[in-house]
Amino acid sequence: MNDAGIGALAPDLWVVERAFKLPVVRAEVGTRMTIVRLADGGLFLHSPVRLDEGLQRALDELGQVRAIVAPSRVHHLFVGDYIAAYPQAQSYGAPGLPERRGDITFDAVLTDEAPELWRGQVEEHVFRGAPVLNEVVFFHPASRTVIFTDLVFNLPASSRARARLFFWLLDAPGKFGPHRIIRRRAIRDRGAARQSINRILQWDFDRVIMSHGDLVESGGKTRVAEAFAYL
Asked: How many domains does the chain have?
């Protein structure tokens, strides 16, 4: 990690990790932004974290921010700050997010087809059956990395001590995969969700990045298949 908290995972792939407490319950789950440098040197930012001067300087050193991506209907808190800081960049929101965030004008809505800006470099799929999220899952073939947001958590077991009742309800710490609320509330159409998982498992990935919890550097495809086998 550099002074701004940017850590390199592979060529042209970085993450930025920040502390983050869930609203209302105030449970610390951490959060993570993923950065992909595109072939033209521009940067693709997935799920932006809080922007400060140090992080902005570090991003500018990596390349020109070209894409600001809000990957689900619930991961959008800091997107407006990035749009203001990088007016030359294109902003992309998950299906349904532009209606939810009427204060932000997105340049495009994400679909199963990658925009020309990152086509052939990053693939994407809108996860079906979980409309409360409408999460868009991404795949970076060059590093064999799949990028989730909230569909997969990987919080360490030690997280339970931070908010015992909440994490007991969530049933997330110490487990990889969708937590209890995702399984029972967010995923409303298991058949559609199963089709999406089958689509994701067609990608040749090994590493798994998610917004909350520890990264999985290898064996990720097997773990994703096992985590969603209940579908």
From this structure: 1
